[in-house]
Amino acid sequence: MPNEKTVAVIGAGAAGLMACGTLAQRGFNVKLFDKNNMPGRKLRITGKGRCNITNIADIDEFINNIPENARFLYSAFSAFDNTDIINLLNKEGLETKIERGGRVFPKSDNAKDVVDALFKFAMRGNVKFITHAVKEIVAQDGCVKGIKLSGGTFVPADAVIVATGGVSYPLTGSDGDGYKFAKKLGHTITDLTPGLVPLTVEQDWVSSLMGLSLKNIAITLFDQSGKKVYNDFGEMMFAHFGLTGPVILSASMHIKSPANGYFICVDLKPALTQQKLEKRLQRDFEENINKKVANALDGLLPKKLIPVILKLWGTDENKPVHQITKSERAKLVTLLKNIRFDIKDFRPIEEAIITRGGINTKEINPSTMESKLVKGLYFAGEVLNVSAYTGGYNLQIAFSTGHLAGMSVKEGED
Question: What is the pLDDT of residue 190?
Fold first, then answer.
């Protein structure tokens, strides 16, 4: 049934569109504000343009993949989970598929199709999409009264949902406005740092490997004391500045300050024990006994990587295989299982997939996403101080918190 209450939603990303559609289903008048005339701009480029919608993991696995403030999300996940978003998108005509690691993608491999389905869901009912920048949220006596646009126009609203994203990918519109709105209304903003971000390293030879992707490798992240902080298995890639790829992005979430001596060790052959790798190498060398050592590693390593491995190994590429000693072979095995990269820094936050930090979750009711400080003010998505690893977990956070905020706006709110 329609009601006379008006809700302003700021931000037409994953969380904002979900909040809009949920509110529309409940009969609210909804005004969706975004400075871009194209909804879901960041969503369109996620997953390299394919959009990793969610993950089929159960709720416990979701929580394990959220290193910051995971418990805050229990209510949101209980109210709207991965099955719910898949079913919703399917109803809107979007077919989905499951890939490695439980990742869910659109069958079309096109992120635009996800945005179109969400926008169709969001714009049902009495919803207006308004392309205009919001300047501030207006509150009086601890209650939301509306919003003020950049031109000075006041728009009255009975509730406001802030779904403005973080500060990563600012060209998509995520430039930190939500933090400014929240801070002005008394909220605390925790330190904003890059999340799921590539890493620069001290080893300058990585630039020669730019573009090389390594699959089925294992990494271990260590802190300055040599303590293991994180390990992962999967894919990484070399860039001119250092390292990127899924396992590297997830590892970045465990680095508090890159200047504090963190380093990563890469195991190129995690499926083989040191002993089995030794036997494999011995067999390869026996088959290529009269070749130069550089030509005997083709079956084991990508061609582009061989010159670097030879340099790190300290062996002349022209040295005949039959001259390689047992101790030299053992040294190579150790190297292949343990290549060290010293972390220099994060890449700029503008290149990060997500923003770590945000509005302090202690100031938000986890059962409703409503501010504990201002009545009628709700938050959803990346603007909150919650963040997860790659694999569809961050988008599910946006969908779940957006839905919960939309469900929690009171119909009789004064």
Answer: 95
Q: Please compute, for residue 289, the number of CA atoms within 13 A of its CA located in the half-sphere on the CB side.
A: 3
Span 28-54, average pLDDT = 93
Give residue 413's pLDDT.
Answer: 46
- Cross-strand partners of 109: none
Bridge pairing between strands 6-10 and 159-162: parallel
Tell me which amino acid residue 216 is: N
User: With contact defined as beta carbons under 8 Å apart, do 233 and 247 qualify?
Assistant: yes
Strand-by-strand arrangement of the 54-55 sheet:
54-55, 103-106, 96-99
- Supply the mean pLDDT for the chain: 94
Read off the DSSP letter of residue 347: P
Q: Are strands 339-346 and 228-238 parallel, antiparallel or unpaired?
A: unpaired
pLDDT, average across residues 272-298: 93
Closest CA to 222 of 268, 261, 269: 261
Mean pLDDT across the stretch 179-193?
96
Put residue 70 in one of left, alpha, beta given phi > 0 → left and psi -120 to 50 → alpha.
alpha
What would the two tokens of residue 261 be? 């001596």
**In 3D, which of 253, 241, 213, 271 has the Cα closest to residue 341?**
241
Closest CA to 51 of 96, 81, 83: 96
* CA pair distance 327, 320, nearest whole angstrom: 16
